[in-house]
Amino acid sequence: MSQPNIQAKIRSNPRFAELVGKRTRFAIILSLLVLVPYYTFMFLVSTQPQIFAAKISEGSVITIGWPIAALIVIGGWLLTGVYISRANGEFDSITEEVLKEARK
Length: 104
What we know:
Elements: H1 3-12, H2 14-47, H3 65-103
């Protein structure tokens, strides 16, 4: 079977359109969940640094900005794991179904 024929079958499969839509929506949502807090934090640090300058406790050298920044980074890692988990589960199974139908 020629490559263009398989590609046409894949593109015409309704499950492929479903896969693209689900994956795109999921990626956009996760991207927003990572980027909005990050850029909000960067904006506030650059325009209102006193917000994050408060010390965590009396005599501490650590400001409140450090743990917030750490949470943003850790949140990004966790959301990457969520995407990988869904991509390796639901998205891969739909991809296999589409490929199996296209090879018929």
